[in-house]
Design brief:
By secondary structure, the chain is α+β, with helices and mostly antiparallel strands. 47% of the residues lie in helices and 21% in strands. Strands 6-5-4-9-8-7 form a 6-stranded antiparallel β-sheet, with helices on both faces. The chain has a 3-stranded antiparallel β-sheet with strand order 1-3-2. α2 crosses α3. The chain is globular, with a radius of gyration of 19 Å. The protein starts with a helix and ends with a helix.
Length: 247
């Protein structure tokens, strides 16, 4: 049981300090480096941890945690508040609706989805992650984070995923100002080519971003003329989820 407790505490430490090195965890726990390394490898083999893509000497939370977290959210006030408004939004626009929460410093994770009935539609599995700077849900979250958090994300670098990904910090900050002004974010092929989305933030009681709800659709059905309408519908849905959760 002692080793199980140690593994769980190390998992929590990685989540708090990620991406983190073996040396940093060794100092934090006061354990031999070999013990820390062995624990990290065991957690990685089980899918709870993974090596950071940019620096493989550093560890971060793995996909297993991202898959379990949505299941845990199923009974939460967020899930309960969001489900009915998401279904109504799907019925109104007949496109796929996603609910995402921020997970780790640089990504969002899909925690719920309501599918449309189009033969051709977008699809993100529950537990899928996507970068904050390259998605509509990410921009909806980023626009309501403190400037210091945005600065930290920019400082880590804005990776390019397509020709449309905003990799210029000035461009990204300008877009976040627009999101705050208009109330919704737009992604057209910024992360996955051919996939578009319009998203709005679900806010906590203090105005911090708890999640984001999005209409997701193929680029073939994306029309700039519909943006004001879709943006209003998504923003209204997000506001309803916020009110239902806090009410």
């Amino acid at each position: 049981m002692k080793s199980v407790t140690r593994s769980l505490r190390m998992l929590e430490a990685v989540a708090q300090h990620q991406p983190v090195t073996v040396g940093e965890l060794t100092k934090l726990f006061g354990l031999p480096k070999s013990t820390v390394q062995r624990t990290l490898v065991s957690l990685a083999e089980a899918g709870w941890l993974r090596a950071n893509r940019k620096d493989t000497t550093r560890w971060e939370i793995g996909a297993r945690v991202l898959a379990v977290r949505p299941a845990a959210l199923q009974g939460s006030s967020l899930y309960a508040a969001a489900r009915e408004p998401m279904v109504r939004l799907r019925d109104t626009v007949n496109e796929t609706i996603h609910l995402c929460v921020a997970d780790a410093p640089e990504c969002t994770v899909v925690v719920d989805r309501v599918d449309c009935d189009h033969a051709v539609r977008t699809f993100h599995a529950i537990g899928d992650t996507s970068p904050l700077h390259a998605t509509a849900t990410g921009h909806a979250v980023l626009a309501h984070l403190p400037e210091a958090d945005i600065d930290a994300i920019v400082a880590r670098g804005l990776e390019s995923y397509s020709d449309s990904t905003p990799t210029d910090p000035v461009e990204l900050r300008a877009e976040l100002r627009r999101v705050r002004k208009d109330g919704y974010a737009v992604n057209r092929n910024q992360y996955v080519p051919g996939v578009c989305a319009i998203a709005a933030p679900v806010l906590d009681g203090d105005g911090s971003p708890l999640a984001a709800v999005a209409v997701s659709l193929p680029d073939s059905r994306f029309s700039p003329d519909r943006l004001p309408e879709l943006g209003r519908l998504v923003a209204d849905t997000a506001a309803e989820i916020t009110a239902r959760r806090l009410g």
